[in-house]
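Project standup — Tuesday

K.O.: blocked on the structure for the chain from last sprint. Re-posting the sequence here as requested.
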Amino acid sequence: MAKKILIVIFITFFMMVAGSAVAEETRKVITGKLNINEASGQDFLLLPGIGEKTSHRIVKYREELGGFKAIEQMKRVKGIGDAVFNKIMEHLTTTGKSYLRVFMDINTATTPALLALPGISEKDAFAVVEYRKKNKGFKKIEEIKLAGIGKEKFEEIKDLITVLELKPIKGKP
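H.V.: unblocked you, prediction finished:
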């Protein structure tokens, strides 16, 4: 069984690399704001460029400060330079409720990313990648049902996925 799973993953990876003209990494769409004075370490991981260590540092620094007065104070945390801060600043706030949402683009989702969705099996992930390849991507999220994702599974994941326009890889038409 483990061999079959590895073979499916290898074939999927090979087909994506060899036969696809989409970005090499799963694209994500982030909307909303994250209250940096109330966010957990896990919440910070939703932001691009923030890993486990930096997330831990943010929480620790916030505790030492007694709370952030301005989002710019995040730049004082080791691991958050200007480049990372500029990517995340529009999603940060020091007041109000957090309502940050992250959506996975099914036009670029890798097999491991698809497997992270609730209820998605290796077979499902493979079917999504195959459908995407044969049909030059998805136009809307409901098309994922045409790839064999059942109505029940779709209902479970529909608020976690999105469809972005396919972008060619540099050097490929």
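K.O.: great, moving the ticket to review. The chain is about 40% helix and 10% strand. The mean pLDDT is 85.
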